[in-house]
Amino acid sequence: MGLVDHYPALNRPANPVCSICIANYNGSTLLDDCLLSVFGQQGDITFEIIVHDDASTDGSIKLLREEYPQVELLASQENVGFCISNNRMVAHARGEYILLLNNDAALYPDAIATLLEAARAQSLAGILTLPQYDWESGELVDRGYLLDPFYNPVPNLDPQHADVAMVIGACLWIPRTLWNVLGGFPEWFGSIGEDLYLCCRARLSGHSVRVLGVSGYRHRVGASFGGGKARDDKLATTFRRRALSERNKTFAIVMTCPTPAIQLLLPVHLALLLVEGAMLTILRGERAYLMGIYLPVFRALFQKYRLLLNERKAIMGRRSIRLLDFFS
């Protein structure tokens, strides 16, 4: 486990059907809504709750230990990021199914029962999610995401479109056996883009990624990591989030974009990154855009070159769908 303090849950269920994994960093003001939505679930479903605290400094651990002793707590002594946090929780989990749930999200009362019913009806295991609704307005945010050719997420709002390219890690349901087959999140991603990678990896292996048409969850988009939400028709984000997003999206392209499409898409993608970075630098008069967001992508590609190629070789060796099916 590394530098992790383990606080076992009281009355830990013997054979949970589902393990609900919540990554937390300085989320003491968010956890009550999240956890109460889990405890308020309908149906006679045995589940366990595991929270990984990523070296919070806001009293999250005290809150969890005093108010929620029925929660299994993994308290990291150092900040390790979203990927390692979730990998640790899943390694610790005992449920047949895993539900990754953000600490800034809250489930509808029938969410777990709905996900479980759909999962058991699948002939081949896949990744599932629910419609996402804005915390403040209650408006639909997405029914999963489609992708443009350069792996940019496009919200799906069509209730008839159940098969999607990816779902976000704020509410991601997956059989534990499939998680283990796919290898979980790449820990060197840190945070951001890990859900994109996992869903592309699953689809390449022939496993579906689907959004259900009923139930849902509310989400304070961006509350747990800063940014990522449109405000007044503009995307509110941070330099750190953008840098991680562009880097990890590029990593995902390199590892999962099928041949021969990558031979065209990757050079164009990299060229567009340079153009966008140069334009923002000129228009805003700040070198930080180019130097802090876009050029680090190229440095990261150079540093991870051998690792990326080895991962790509392994992934493509297990690819079981056609190029057109992947992009459809």
Measured distance between first and last alpha carbons: 40 Å
Please state the CA-atom Rg, rounded to the nearest Å.
19 Å
Order of SSEs, N→C?
EEHEHEHEEHEEEEEEHHEEEEHHHHH
Name the helicity range: 40-55%
Strand content: 15-25%
Q: Say how many strands there are.
A: 16
What general form does the structure show? globular
Spatial strand sequence of the major β-sheet = 1-4-3-2-5-12
Largest sheet: 6 strands, mixed
Mean pLDDT: 94
> Count the helices. How many?
11
Oligomer: single chain
By helix and strand content, what is the structural category? alpha/beta
Contiguous low-pLDDT stretches (5 residues minimum) are: 227-235
What does this structure look like?
With 328 residues, this protein is of the alpha/beta class. It has 11 helices and 16 strands. The chain has a 6-stranded mixed beta sheet with strand order 1-4-3-2-5-12, with helices on both faces. The chain has a 4-stranded mixed beta sheet with strand order 6-14-8-9. The chain has a two-stranded parallel ribbon with strand order 7-13. Helix 6 (194-204) packs parallel to helix 7, helix 7 packs antiparallel against helix 8 and helix 7 crosses helix 10 (305-317). The longest helix has 24 residues, at 261-284. The termini are far apart.
